[in-house]
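User: I'm preparing a small set of examples for a lab meeting where we compare how different chains pack in three dimensions. I only have the primary sequence for this one, and I'd like the structure in token form so I can line it up with the others. Please keep the answer compact; I'll paste it straight into my notes.
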Amino acid sequence: MRLVAYLPTVWAILQSRDSRQHSLWTWLIWLGAHLTMAAWMYEHDSQRVDAAIGVSLANAAACGLTTAVILWFRRGGWTRAMIAIY
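Assistant: Understood. Below is the structure token output for the 86-residue chain.
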């Protein structure tokens, strides 16, 4: 369920084509937090991948997607893509 919560942010950025209202640092911190939590659980759970690690990695992937979308629009990716199409 939590993974669905990331979609409105990505959707809002895609719709507005503007990521300035979203904090890149916040999303990078959340990405790092999920990755380090997955690593910590792996080390403290006999180095086995379980469901909790999977959830943490899925959350990290969603944060990574959001971070990538933010960077795409901040670096003018949408403008370059539209120019290439036309």
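A couple of notes for your slides: The chain has four helices and no strands. The CA atoms of residues 34 and 60 lie 5 Å apart.

User: Perfect, thanks.
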